[in-house]
Amino acid sequence: MSPINIILKRELSAYFATPVAYIFIIIFLMLSGVFTFYLGRFFEQSQASLSSFFNFIPWLYLVLVPAVAMRLWSEERRSGTIELLMTLPITTSQIVIGKFLAAWLFVGLALVLTFPLWLTVNYLGSPDNGVILAGYIGAWLMAGGFLAIGSCLSAATKNQIIAFILTLVVCFLMVVSGFPIVQDVFSSWAPLWLVDGFATLSFLTHFEAISRGVIDLRDLIYFLVLIAAWLYATVLVVDMKKAD
Amino acid sequence: MIQISNLTKYFDDFCAVDNISFTIQPGEVLGFLGPNGAGKSTTMKIITGFLAPTSGGVTVLGHNVLKDPIAAQLEIGYLPEGAPAYADMTVSAALKFIAQVRGYSGDELKRRIQSVVEKVELQPVLDRRVENLSKGYCRRLGIAQALIHDPKVLILDEPTDGLDPNQKHQVRQLIRNLSKEKTVIISTHILEEVSAVCTRAMILSLGKIVFDGTPVELAAKSDLHNAVRIRLQSSSEEILAELKALSDVQNLTQDESGMITVYPVDGKAILSAVNSVLHKNNSLVEELHVESGQLDDVFRKVTLNHAQPNTVKQEQSA
Fold it and tell me: What is the ipTM of this complex?
């Protein structure tokens, strides 16, 4: 087994060793139900699609994904296990990637468990399942972006609460920078290229593009580059802060 | 073999390790002594590749720790300070994780775990979660994970901290029984541990080496080294004066219980001279023994002398 795999397995089992994983999944499923059916007016819209679910996913993530990411490194630093881990014959990058993949798979699992929504919409009508699949892929990629940011910020502090709040704030900015209302605030005074640049950096722009059913290579690259960049930053932060 | 040359580590402007150099040969068991914040743990963290030094170099079995940490870490077994372990894992899962990272699988993995579990007697708690372990078991788990790959270099930061006297004895026995080709560094606050397990003692103070020698040499630095303690049925001023007048006697004290301590000049052997004085006076001796030297006495002498001129920032832990 490769070192990344071993780390991944340990992390993943750590999620399920405590009630945290189960609580997270239950709340995730409950909230996605509330958002889709109640706030998203799934039935009133009478559309055979999951757009009411995917529209709310960024906001659902905003609260829940930082909660998954906050313990990635803070906990290691607080308990001192980081010293154990980092003196084993594995590289920092392998540990960073292993931990990230575990968190990503975990959120992916929560996402898969929303399949009753998909069953419901298929029972009630005949949706374009390709679009729904694209929506899920987009949602998972976006979760990766949230988690990579959270991983980096979690490495910067021993305190999980601080890690949570920092991640929430940064992710919030990453989401709303693509929001028309926020763009309007800037567009009155900032040059157009800056406003566009901001919008291009937003999770929302790329996620919405994918969840419309068009998997454009540029949107994929955006998420993968974003994840890689924040994970690279995590490696730097871990090496810098591990001994504090 | 571990070679350390001109190692210096600053935390901001605090100097934790101050230009130290030494070499440890296979078969040596080096005991790191020193007050809190002396730089013991910092030095160990640098050797294991956890911390990068500000300047200087470390090689472990010829591998440069700064350039190729993985090669060095493959050879090192390390128990970090406080024996950290994943609280949410069971003891057997924690050992399995370490063994997997060390590259073992299948039967070999089972055999390795079995062997260290027996060595440190972890059988009763294998299925227990780390968070529910007593301090003693936690420490033993830490030692077990350090031994799992039968490393040539073993670095144990306070291996007996928090153990009861029986467990301490057991861990010392374990360290003594390690094969003779291993290079071992342990740090400790317990001075008797150094004479019990170490072949070499090194005292650090404020990041500098203030003593480096065998435990016997360390004890010899004590004022009490070769001092003679006597309790007489009845002691008189004359006998005391006569003992004090002996050429190799530096000083003499008597406490409330009547115990007389005769201090030699430069640790010279004075027992026979003292004995002949007692014999001549026909004194009835209730108790008589030669001191080998009190280590904590030396420890204080060496570290305080060194620390006094500059005692700032001692609260910072290293």
Answer: 0.88
